[in-house]
Amino acid sequence: MRAIVLLSGGLDSYTAAAIAKSEGFTINALTVQYGQRHGREVESARAVARWLGVERHLELSVDLRGIGGSALTSDEAVPRDRDLSSRDIPTTYVPARNTIFLSLALGWAEVLDARDIVMGVNALDYSGYPDCRPVFISAFESLASLATRAGVQEGSRFRIHTPLISMTKAEIVRRGLGLGLDYGLTTSCYDPGPTGRPCGHCDSCVLRAKGFDEVGIADPLRLG
Questions:
Q1: Which fold is adopted by the domain 2-65+97-187?
Q2: β-strand pairing of 26-33 with 56-61
Q3: How far apart are CA 21 and CA 70, in angstroms?
Q4: What are the C-alpha distances in Å from 53 to residues 18, 86, 164?
Q5: 216 CB burial (10 A radius; 0-12, 13-18, 19+)
């Protein structure tokens, strides 16, 4: 079985890819350089892809800086120490990003004759992003059958696998460690320093730290 995995180089996408591999999928990784404010996560995606032994790692450039509307694609300050209980959508939300990413993955899936797409979205520790919810994933699956030759002519059904969607960050970390993952290869921070060291205060850093703390082990990115 062949699957397309959206691989960002972060903890979640790495874990989702490893779960798919453990379930027997041959992994083809797709990393999108979308004009994000740092290239560290792309470097991490390459390292993670090597660790996973993917069949192919495709990097596509789709520069979303022209659209704007996000602290991740502009010089706007990344929020720090935000109240994560808030349901307000933060400025780190990139307009329609997961819709764009899934569309690219869907196109590649058709070419490779794959019917499975894997992504590491999470509906519990998700910072309020609307495109990380189960209702969005379900809607995109329906769209995929209507928007593709494989769906219309062959009656093929595309499936979006979201193995982490109902997990806490601690459960994700624990599952990944059980699979032997090296989280030192990953990057989660929205605004790392010049050396790549995580800021420790953005939403992603706080959620990651919470996960490792609840598991009771040290995050390899915070060592040294």
A1: Rossmann fold (3.40.50)
A2: parallel
A3: 33
A4: 10, 39, 21
A5: exposed
Closest among 132, 96, 138 to 204, alpha carbons compared:
132
Query: Which residues lie closer than 8 Å to 21 by C-beta, 6 or more apart?
Result: 27, 52
Whole-angstrom distance, CA of residue 49 vs CA of residue 39: 16
pLDDT in tens, 85-106: 887 899 999 999 999 999 999 9
The first and second tokens of residue 5, run together, are 């995995």
Query: If 0-12 CB within 10 Å is exposed, 13-18 middle and 19+ buried, where does residue 53 land?
Result: exposed
Could you tell me the residue ranges of all domains in the chain?
A: 2-65+97-187
Instruction: Count how many residues are written for the chain.
Output: 224
pTM check: above 0.90: yes
Residue identified by tokens 């890819």 is 17
